[in-house]
Amino acid sequence: MTDATFEDGAERPVRLIAAEADDLKVISALVQDAVLTGGDITWSRKRRQFALLINRFRWEDRDAAARMNRPVERVRAMLVIDDALAVRAAGITPGEKDVVLSLLSIEHTGGEDGSATLTLIFAGDGEIAIDVEAINLTLADVTKPYRAPSGKTPSHD
Q1: Cα distance between residue 81 and residue 137, in whole Å
Q2: pLDDT of 58-103, one tens digit each?
Q3: Which positions ≥6 away from 27 have C-beta within 8 Å?
Q4: Domain residue spans of the chain
Q5: What angle do CA 38, 41, 42 make, to 5 degrees?
Q6: Rg (alpha carbons) of the chain, rounded to whole number
């Protein structure tokens, strides 16, 4: 079986921007169970940008895959947090290329004058907290979808 393409269906690549806390809920749901390595994480203090290259499970396609009796899919995507002021990690080491991480959610804690702390929660009690001047997060698919290697929908049983 060949990889799928966005052109095969009516769907387009995901390209979303979060500018407020409610927007983060949608993006958090779409990145749930994304996998990456520590080497897929970058932090540029000079650019005030924190970014992850993730293998995102296509939750938005799960029901269509079941209806059409075809494999579920993943897609490579960029999760970029701009206006980042500081980054703290606990339980994981960004940059470790041999460690596979599973992103579970993005949490938000509001601060003063629109500032916030965005916390990326990973399986195994790891987390990365990013202090931001304002919520400015982008999720963008950067490849065509591909068959999920496991062939299964992620489960938390």
Answers
A1: 4
A2: 999 999 999 999 999 999 999 999 999 999 999 998 788 888 999 9
A3: 16, 18, 79, 106, 137, 139
A4: 6-143
A5: 135
A6: 16
- Tell me the CA distances in angstroms from 69 to 21, 31, 88, 95, 132, one per residue in order: 36, 23, 43, 38, 42
CA nearest to 141, candidates 48, 37, 34? 34
Query: Alpha-carbon distance 18 to 65, whole Å?
Result: 27
Q: What SS3 class is residue 135?
A: coil
What is the band of 1 on the pLDDT scale with cuts at 50, 70, 90?
Answer: very low
Please write the tens of the pLDDT for every residue from 18-72: 999 999 999 999 999 999 999 999 999 999 999 999 999 999 999 999 999 999 9
